């Protein structure tokens, strides 16, 4: 379409020139004493056009001649720049291939090429090489590649030297992203050296936006776990779970493990209650945490009533028709309740009795109800419940405790035969 339009335009110009010049009888007279020259107007126009073209070509030729030195300098700068970028790409390729010595040499070669290149300008002030912003970024990346190679070769002195140089060259505002990358690599090297405090320091120097990235949070989680800073690690794990950095199951497992560590770090009931209060509602609702926290509080001789209040949601979940609470957690829950049986209040006794009535064939609830009756010196009912529960219990610990309790009840009745038989049954497991 464009060619057709050009053809039509040229055709129109040709027609116009033919109409104008075909019947043009004008004459141009040039007086040059003592001569007189008469030429046609058309010839005069052609001579003027030819003279203009000749002058234009002459000016172009002179401009090209005088620009040869500048073009030569620009060409040499381009060759150096190509060699510089080629060395940088070679360094990156060698680093990925595990050739760390070659990668370091190529990166240092790129630095040498960049130093010889500089920021060259022509006579008019236009740059003939790369700009200052690109120069600082390239120097930072080259120093970072040398430092990465030195880290792989365990050359800490060379790594730290080029790390500082990379930070210095990325201090400008236009090199902020490069600086963040250098800080991320420094934090990762600190993690590889198992220096948690140094890794946290590097991550703390990041801007607020960069510090909330998934990469930074993952590294912060590792550093906090290495440094045994469980509370900070748990807070970071919550952020990662919120950002969906893990699958839901993995996130729940990580949070649960860190929360268990936080509870285990408490050495007295006050610390344990503070740790429990620091957990959020979803974490306190986890059966594993509730059972472990209650067990830990009782083992530290804390408030048994408070410990049992932590177990109420777990107890409700256990009694649901389609409860997903596993046998291990059920056994742990019953064991924790049994540990505080001497201080069991009327409300919990009513809960245990109602659970046994609603689930009369559950041996674990029969066992718990029997131990509750035993603690209240209801010997007959305790012996009835424990006799029904003991043969059906699959857990070895509960099975052994049930038979020992039956043996104690038999000794109270002075039934030595039943007591010996109960002790034998308890010793078989």
From TrEMBL:
From the record, give the transmembrane residue ranges: 42-62
Compartments annotated for it: namely: Cell inner membrane
Q: Which UniProt keywords apply?
A: Cell inner membrane, Cell membrane, Membrane, Porphyrin biosynthesis, Transmembrane, Transmembrane helix
Q: Which superkingdom, per the lineage?
A: Bacteria
- Asked whether the keyword Repeat is assigned, the reply is no
Record membrane topology:
Multi-pass membrane protein
Database matches in InterPro entries: Heme_biosyn_assoc_TPR_pro, HemY_N, TPR-like_helical_dom_sf
Q: Does the keyword Membrane apply?
A: yes
Pathway linked to the protein: Porphyrin-containing compound metabolism; protoheme biosynthesis
HemY N-terminal domain boundaries: 28-115
Q: Which BP terms from GO are recorded?
A: heme metabolic process; porphyrin-containing compound biosynthetic process
Query: Could you state one GO cellular component term attached to this entry?
Result: plasma membrane
Its annotated function is as follows: Involved in a late step of protoheme IX synthesis.
- Protein name stated in the entry: Heme biosynthesis HemY N-terminal domain-containing protein
Q: Which species is listed as the source?
A: Polaromonas hydrogenivorans
Source lineage = Bacteria, Pseudomonadati, Pseudomonadota, Betaproteobacteria, Burkholderiales
């Amino acid at each position: 379409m464009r060619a057709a339009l050009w053809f039509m335009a040229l055709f129109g110009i040709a027609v116009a020139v033919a109409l104008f010049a075909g019947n043009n009888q004008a004459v141009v007279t040039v007086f040059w004493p003592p001569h007189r020259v008469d030429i046609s107007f058309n010839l005069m126009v052609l001579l003027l056009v030819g003279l203009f073209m000749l002058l234009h070509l002459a000016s172009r030729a002179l401009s090209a001649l005088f620009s040869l030195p500048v073009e030569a300098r620009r060409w040499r700068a381009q060759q150096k720049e190509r060699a510089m970028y080629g060395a940088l790409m070679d360094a990156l390729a060698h680093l990925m291939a595990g050739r760390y010595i070659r990668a370091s040499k190529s990166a240092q070669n790129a630095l040498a090429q960049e130093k010889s290149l500089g920021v060259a300008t022509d006579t008019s002030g236009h740059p003939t090489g790369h700009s200052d912003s690109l120069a600082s970024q390239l120097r930072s990346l080259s120093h970072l590649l040398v430092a990465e190679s030195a880290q792989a070769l365990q050359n800490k002195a060379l790594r730290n030297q080029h790390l500082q140089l990379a930070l210095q060259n990325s201090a400008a505002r236009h090199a902020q992203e490069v600086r963040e990358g250098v800080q991320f690599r420094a934090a990762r090297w600190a993690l590889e050296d198992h220096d948690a405090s140094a890794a946290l320091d590097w991550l703390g120097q990041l801007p607020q936006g960069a510090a909330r990235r998934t990469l930074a949070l993952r590294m912060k989680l590792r550093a906090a776990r290495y440094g045994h800073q469980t509370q900070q690690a748990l807070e970071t794990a919550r952020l990662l779970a919120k950002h969906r950095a893990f699958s839901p199951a993995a996130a729940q497992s990580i949070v649960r493990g860190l929360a268990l560590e936080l509870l285990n770090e408490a050495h007295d009931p006050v610390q344990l209650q503070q740790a429990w209060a620091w957990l959020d509602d979803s974490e306190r609702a986890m059966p594993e945490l509730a059972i472990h926290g209650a067990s830990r509080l009782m083992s530290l001789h804390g408030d048994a009533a408070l410990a049992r209040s932590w177990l109420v949601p777990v107890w409700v979940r256990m009694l649901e028709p389609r409860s997903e609470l596993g046998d291990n957690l059920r056994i742990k829950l019953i064991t924790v309740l049994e540990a505080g049986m001497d201080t069991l209040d009327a409300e919990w006794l009513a809960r245990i009795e109602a659970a046994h009535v609603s689930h009369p064939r559950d041996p674990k609830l029969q066992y718990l109800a029997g131990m509750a009756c035993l603690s209240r010196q209801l010997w007959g009912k305790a012996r009835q419940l424990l006799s029904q529960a003991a043969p059906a219990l699959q857990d070895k610990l509960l099975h052994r405790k049930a038979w020992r309790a039956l043996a104690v009840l038999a000794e109270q009745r002075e039934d030595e035969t039943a007591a010996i038989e109960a002790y034998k049954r308890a010793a078989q497991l």
